[in-house]
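ugh ok fine here u go
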Amino acid sequence: MERTNNTPLTEFVLTGIPYPPKLRTFLFLFFLVIYTLTQMGNLLIFLTVCIDSQLHARPMYIFLGALSVIDMGISSIIVPRLIMNFTPGIKPISFGGCVAQLYFYHFLGSTQCFLYTLMAYDRYLAICRPLHYPVLMTSKMCYLMVTGAWIAGSIHGAIQAILTFRLPYCGPNQVDYFFCDIPAVLRLACADTTINELVTFVDIGVVVASCFSLILLSYIHIIKAILRIRTADGRRRAFSTCGAHVTVVTIYYVPCAFIYLRPEANSPLDGAAALFPTAITPFLNPLIYTLRNQEVKLALKRMVGDQRAMSKN
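structure:
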């Protein structure tokens, strides 16, 4: 489905991820299950945080609720299109659909970066400044910071989408990727993309590097504070409150750095790496935060107990 060089594109074809034809049915079912469990798990955490009176006013769980919304959004933007690639036939995405997918992915992805940073700051205040924590990290302040993260993310996504699609696209229309992302789409532009590549590298690099640096700095102070705790049980409990966050940050940031912060962003491994922030991390977040968090487990039990009590009445 190629176009001549003087015809503006009206649609793109996403090639998806390469796979052996024998695995088509398995991969279709695998990602369908991943997507379904991602939506259910994150929705369950979001509802638990909203409903449970002991969670929805606490900063850590306000951030966790916002993270669940972002995970549902990123998964819904990318994974259904990925699943469609495992069905017969060519399924093009419209030009406007490609613009929207790229915008919302970078909008939600950068918001997630900012949110991870806020969660690290929350852990820093809770462990290193426990006496000041209730004053500095109020519910109102948390909602303001989450709102700021969403606004900053939307601006970042708009910048990336505008810069990418201000270029002319006149053929071919085959995107060698499983969703519309900047490096893959820019390769189809009928103009010089040097400035775009530089701005993308700098813009995403600043977001990723600054957020990761702040997270790293927070955890350096956190580790120092934990090591000053005299009891082994106290150190264990302090580390356990940070373990889930460190895990998801690692799973998220390493693939993103690999994809966007290299001089030549055209590797066969890019597609595999992109599966982590788009499909794997949103799926794992509910499991990590639920299995490692006793308060979320207790809140889920309270919800189940309340539902059973209401059904009996």
